[in-house]
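F.,

This is the one I mentioned.
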């Protein structure tokens, strides 16, 4: 199971990338309760990974950004997760 903050950051990222307004609106309050700030939520909406989250959450967001591209390649995925993501 993912930590709440990580899960909600990725949910918002995917909702934004897939232009899913219902999920975006529904999960914003949940994300805030999980610990994301207004600035982090806004940044995720704009496609920016927050730089003030733990390393595992940053990795999950980076991987989510790569995977929501139209055709991610293996090099991009490897770059997103790094040599030892967990």
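My design for it:
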């Amino acid at each position: 199971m993912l930590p709440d903050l990580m899960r909600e950051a990725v949910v918002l990222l995917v909702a934004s990338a897939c232009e899913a307004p219902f999920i975006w609106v529904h999960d914003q309050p949940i994300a805030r309760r999980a610990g994301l700030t207004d600035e982090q939520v806004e940044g995720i909406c704009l496609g920016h990974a927050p730089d003030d989250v733990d390393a595992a959450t940053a990795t999950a967001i980076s991987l989510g950004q790569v995977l929501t591209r139209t055709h991610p390649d293996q090099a991009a995925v490897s770059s997103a997760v790094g040599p030892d993501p967990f």
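Helices lie at 4-17, 21-34, 38-45, 55-67, 74-81.

Talk soon.
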